[in-house]
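Bug: token stream looks shifted between consecutive jobs. Job 1:
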Amino acid sequence: MNRTLLALIAMAAAHGPLTAQQLRSVPAHPEHKHHGPSIAPATGPAVNPKGSAFYSEPFDNDLNGWTVVSGIGNLDWAWTNSGPGPTSSTYPVPALNTSTPSGWVIIDDDYLGTPGQQAESSLVSPVIDLSAAPTNLKVEFDQYFQEFSDPDVETWVGVSTDGGTTWDEILINEGVGRDGRPNPEVMDVDISAWVAADPSNVQLRFRYLATWDYGWQLDNIAIRELPNNDMALVSFAKTDFDFDLTGVANMDYSIYPLSQLRPMQMSGLLKNKGYLAQTGVSITSTVTEPGGANEVLTGGGLTFAPGETVAVPVTGYTPPSTVGVYTLDHAVSQNETDEVPANNTGSDQFAVSTTTWAHDDGAVESFILQGPDFAGEQFGVGNRFDLVADAQLVAVQVAIHDTTEAGTLIAGEIYDADDNLLDQTTDHEIVASELNTVGGSTFITLTFDAPIDLFAGNAYLVMAHYFGGPEVVGFASSGASAAQVSIVHYPDDPQGNFFYYVTRTPMVRAILSGPIGIDEEGGPLARAPLAWPNPATEQTRLGFELREAAPVRFELHAATGELVQSADLGRMSAGEQQHAIDVSDLSQGLYTWTLLIDGRRFNGRMAVQR
């Protein structure tokens, strides 16, 4: 399904709310796919076992009495234990990850659909007797839905109590995007009013209507009692990144380098999954910092109607300049007593590093290969990085999956905001010891011949590049990215120099310049030096931590190499130390500071603004 990056930008709105729901009561009743990167199915966590149900269907062996009702065309629902058929689509559909041992149902439009052909097919349950069930009911199910772009793509869940003569329906999926959705995504629909007409004669229907799109996969359909009071934390965002609103600014990183720390506007997506309105709904997020200090962020105090979903921001947070892992624990509360507290909490984390900048989650989950149409051609994968302070890029790190052949050549690359190549590292020949299986975390460091100057207010694309040939290269991926953050590049595509976005995060990292040797066991520094504020206008402070007492000398050089300041700081004691730098007489520009500690040299960059 052919889309360049520009076309994808125009359609980034496809990544909207998790569900777009519309109720109605109804009677019964592009055309060339461009073959892009092939993305291996990710390994997802199993869904926790669900509680008791008044009806359940796990589809472990077959359709088990469910019937397929054809509407338009000849594409229909089917039982599967393997998932979608193999295609070379730009966004190949992964198999549904579910908690059952085997089997689920699928309508596989990408593999079996016909270009230009509209398809409608319904999956209808046997008659379900709910006369002994409580009044308030919901239907739950696991799904994976992936949409291309057609405006008429719709999936509906419906209920009939008159043998299928009429159906009440709710629109479940529309305008939700191509990739990166939860897998599985646990959905629930309030069916109380629909069942009330005749609880002893209930049928469920899952209806798909589209023109050659990707498809829909379902499993673990169950009817359960709908609690009166049930607020849920659907997801949590650590930044306010939204490509439509912010462009490439405020991206969410798994690791921030010290020089690129910035305010983080966090928010929780909350949903009222109960039968009654919920009042005083709030979210509390506790940030546990590497030193053990806690920062409590709060937001909310809202009223939620039944079924309402709202993104609730919490108070702003800026990480301190402390290297390490930051853990976030979230909790949702309301005035009413929540009957399902298990979905009220969640956790996240991010890290602060001296020089490493990353989007990925650190352990290999999957890998990205060339699409079949690009076999033997050059291709690359990478991520975008937006700068809040000037910096220098010195290297690219990449993790490679063991589908890759040893001896293959790769390199690191950096592109500017207009996707123009700025520089490329020295070629690197992959050896077997550098390859990763799932769960691995071995990175290859690809170093530039000279540092690349990066400037605040700009975003850069950092990539790992394969030069083409008969070898197979699997670039490792870990975690999920928002639209427009993670990129696959085909420079030799006959239709143009294509940049596609993907939402499985390539394990490609940026390494910025900074102090060296601080991670070495027994080195003099216990914490990386940091100049703050940076940029500076009148004065900045260079903070650092010594493992033991040592002689220290400070030097500051202009971009020309001229020594503009120096100071012998004497023998400084172990622990936290600071050196004040007066920049009031310095011209605007970039400077390099140096600490000489017990004969060892540590360098960093700072900027002076006027």
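Job 2, same session, no restart:
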Amino acid sequence: MQTVAYLLAVDRGREQAVNVAKLTNLRDRLPTKVVSEQPVAPSQRTAIGQAPAFAPDLVRRPALVSRLAEARACPLAVVTAPAGYGKTTLLAEWAAEDMRPFAWVALERGQGDAPRLAQLIAGAVGALRGSHGSVLVLDNTHLIRPRVLRDAVEALLPEVGEGSQIVLSGRTEPMLPLGRLRAQRRLVELGARELSMSSGEAAALLRAAGLDVEFETVQTLVRRTEGWPAALYLAALSLLARTDPAGGPASFGGEDHLVAEYVQDEFLAGLSPQGRTLLTQGSVLDRLSGPLCDEVLQRAGSDQLLAALARSNLPLAPLDSGHESYRLHGLLRETLQADLCRSDPQLARRLHRRASVWYADRGDFDRAIEHAVEASDAKLTGELLLAQLPRYLGDGRNARVRSWLDSFTAEHIAGSGPLALVAAHSHLIAGSIDLAQHWGRVAAAENGRAGARCNSRAVTAGIAIVQAWVGRSGTAVMADDAARASALLPDQSPWQASCCFLGGTAELLSGNRAAARRHFDEGADRGVIAAPNIAAMCLAQLAGIAIDDEQWETAEDLAERALRETERHHLSDAPLSALVFAVSAAVGAHEGLIVEAKRDLRQCGDLLRELDGFAPWYGAETRILLARAAMALADVQDARARLAEASRLARRTPDVVIFRQWFDAAWDEADTRAETALVGPSSLTTAELRVLRFLPTHYSFREIAQRLHVSSNTVKTQVHSVYRKLDASSRSEAVANASRAGLLGT
């Protein structure tokens, strides 16, 4: 406890007014030389050093001490950070480690006028007379009027000899030509970012405070406090008072009464009413800028006030080089937000609503939606989210959409047609077709009420898209729903990609392959930016058509593009990506990529289990593709099981013409493979034996085909037959089994 009690005791001063006119002839008040050329005896160091003692149980920060010690060529060191960052403690550790003598001026209230400052500095420097290489520390410089400090330092700097330094430590940045000093490499600086504790330092501090927790808990506290030493100690006190300290780090925050009291004492008490109002109301924002605060807080001149607050004793950091926007420390922001919500929750919601509109007008829809949710405005949230939903779902961010929806009750969602439609599509993309239908019906009912908003066309279109996905009324109705939705939407709407996919699927299931191909081509082009998940599924459907046409090179290219889009947008675990993996498995198996095909087949199977009860046409088509992959992998039993499942689903989708063609071809192939899958190597034909001789080589299937003067597809078919007859699942295994059977010699 002694460690952190000392840490919190530092930097307690307050700025006071001084008479800058009294700062005259300061140079005359100071010694003519801060440092002489005579060495100092080690025994004199303790007598002249005025640094606070660095106790053994204090947290050591060797990296920062080394940074200061190694910068002795810089005549000026500036350590600036808000209260509680351990500035004085760090300098005390430096003084204890550095062999140079330290003269320490710990400024207090009433010492900020020019004569008194000159007297203090003169006394400290006088103690160093006769030393070679020394350090003069002016601590709590925020207590001095900026001009007084500036004139004093500018008078002292020319007198600093080689190997000596002046150190300024305070809560506000000194009004000095720091830019020029940086460029001249005459300045070393440490700020709040450098003084923030690492996980290792935090663990040491917490142990010293009596809290011994797992390192994962330490890391959580470092994230919550952003490494602020004083806040870490307060977290230790808070957790020690709980029955289960290890269970509370994630809940520790600005609402904790210890944090709130510290923030009030150290930061808020000294603020002007205007500054406190700006920060309290601005706490609803994750970043503060002049134009944004003016709009949301309905005031003027926020940029000047923010700049002044950033220069004061506040953990308010600039976010850009031009200092146009700022960020409050997370704990301070949480404390202010809690105060605002307790004192005026209605105002907090109005502020969030204004912020939402401001961000939406500037195209920052992520923040706009966040603020609409915080405002508990279901209608505004629904309107914003529905317009951006294809982007969120297309990028694999349905979990974020669900988190926003979870902020509202079912009654609130039902009261907003757009938000109900968002819920429908969110459940649809997750494979929950029944919930998607439920919320689609709710959206339709709300949209049909008197006084529906002007976005009813978009809602009507969204409802039609949900109905088309379900597809239980047949392909003709599915095509009509997709066409109706497309007609209601603007041509540039991101939802148009879904209309293309669903319209193309309806044409494909009806047997109109040419029309389906046109829809899928357009959907892939439209969705590549606005709806990547839909683009990937359009490419998968095109690959399936190429497989039917036995255009394997085209199918391979399309399947690879679909898989690449899926992986690039983090959609591999999205249930509706099952179709992409089914096509990839079918193509990979045909191409002899056994390992890759089996991997894709397993992934597709896992995703299909999450789609239990989903649109029957989708499940049937995907399983037929998996059956083709299984047959190419010589697993006829699995292929038959997939086809049986697909048949049951197909019966639930009326007037699907293409299913009969697919099933006839698949069952015929399964029967043929079952009849010809003779056991043992003796069943190999002459053509298969010729191909077998090339398998131990490095030749690709294409190169083998060139040497045998046959097509690549013929070689692939013969190789797969060899695999089956030799009970092998890969090229290397086929070679090994053939060698054991004496078919390849020694």
